[in-house]
Amino acid sequence: MRGIVTRFGSRGRTIAVLGCSLALAGLLTASGGRFAASQEAVLTAMKADQEIPVREPWDPFWSRLPRVDLPLSAQQTLPPMGGSRWTLTARAVQDDTSVYIAVEWTDPAPSRSVATTQAFTDAVAVQFPAVASTSVPALCMGDPTATMNIWQWRAAWQADVNRGSRANADAQYPNTDVDGYPFADDPVFRPGEYVGNPFSQRDRSSAVDNLVASGFGSLTADPVASVQGWGQFRNGRWRVVFARPLAIGREGNVDLAPDDWTDVAFAVWDGGVGERNGMKSVGNFVRLNLTSEPLTPAGASFPFWPAPFFAFLGLWVAVGWVLLAWKPQRRPA
Q1: pTM of the entire predicted model
Q2: Which of 4, 132, 205, 249 is the most buried (most CB within 10 A)?
């Protein structure tokens, strides 16, 4: 009679598999990791008790915040349609007085000029329902029953803020000579500036246009520069930080509060391929949660350290593999 005797036995291998599965499930739960991506995307703004580096988009602080990767698609609702960016990364934080949203996306080359009729600027926009905690459909610029508040950052405006309002024109036409103009302060001779055209604005204090819309063709600029924005291009990526007080009390502008929530959507323009106006990449609305839960010292939302996690996980996988791969030993009956 010949029998088979295993070193650990089938019961031992079953226990090992269950143990590895439970350990992996526990670690994924503690770290916030998920195998499936079908769950609703939520952008969480936790409370920071430190100075926020709003003027330094590539400060390590932003990379330590929990991130949400959001898919974008070409705008196909109305002509001229278009759009070529497919993913945007968003992060958020608040400090009980202001909310900060950092967005990041890839771009082959920066486009920072609107000095000629053929030049278009890179841009990104954040869109909220004008009334917080109100869900709206993912329709570009809202509708007559759902006013939207839109914060649009433009790379050309950032260049104006960084180098002065004539930066783009001087770079495009370095040999231009301007004579004295006798009607410099007469609005009759500055119609674009007089009607509030953002392209005619001088002495720009913010790289962000604060806009209100109630459907296509209704986009209006709010003259109060309540939203600030700073963007920098590095290694083929733009990163832009938006900053605004939680509440400003102006009609059409979203008012937020700690432990509040609302919907938010994003759009990206690649000026290098001629994108402007409705030619953009857009994403669906996701939930923005503002919470008073503090950030950990490392800036993460959970006590998770990648190196120990993967070391422990690798140990369990190795043990499980040994137990499962162990071949039975045969001996004569």
Answers
A1: 0.72
A2: 132
| 11 contact partners, CB below 8 Å, separation of at least 6 | none
> What three-state secondary structure class fits 29?
helix
**Residue range 236-265: mean pLDDT, rounded:** 94
Taking a C-beta distance cutoff of 8 angstroms, is the pair 40, 34 a contact? no
Give the CB-side neighbour count of residue 324, counting CA atoms within 13 A: 13
Q: Could you identify the residue written with the tokens 């959001």?
A: 70
Q: Round to whole Å and give the CA distance between 25 and 281.
A: 36
Q: How far apart are CA 118 and CA 233, in angstroms?
A: 22
Stated as kind and residue range, the H or E segment containing 211 is strand 208-213
- As a whole number of angstroms, the distance between CA 262 and CA 132 comes to 5
CA terminus-to-terminus distance, the chain: 5
Q: Is the pLDDT of residue 74 over 60?
A: yes
Alpha helices in the chain, H assignment, sequence order: 9-31, 60-64, 155-163, 167-172, 191-194, 306-325
In angstroms, rounded to a whole number, what is the distance separating the alpha carbons of residues 85 and 111? 14
- Segment 198-216 shows an average pLDDT of 83
- Topology (CATH) of 41-301: Immunoglobulin-like (2.60.40)
Judge whether 152 and 125 are in contact, CB under 8 Å.
Answer: yes
Residue 35 has pLDDT above 50, yes or no: no
Q: Which residues contact 222 (CB under 8 A, 6 or more apart)?
A: 210, 211, 212, 250, 252, 253
Q: What is the domain partition of the chain in residue ranges?
A: 1-32+305-333, 41-301
Residue 34 confidence (pLDDT): 42
Rg (CA), the chain: 27
Angle, CA 115 vertex, CA 112 and CA 121 arms, to 5°: 30
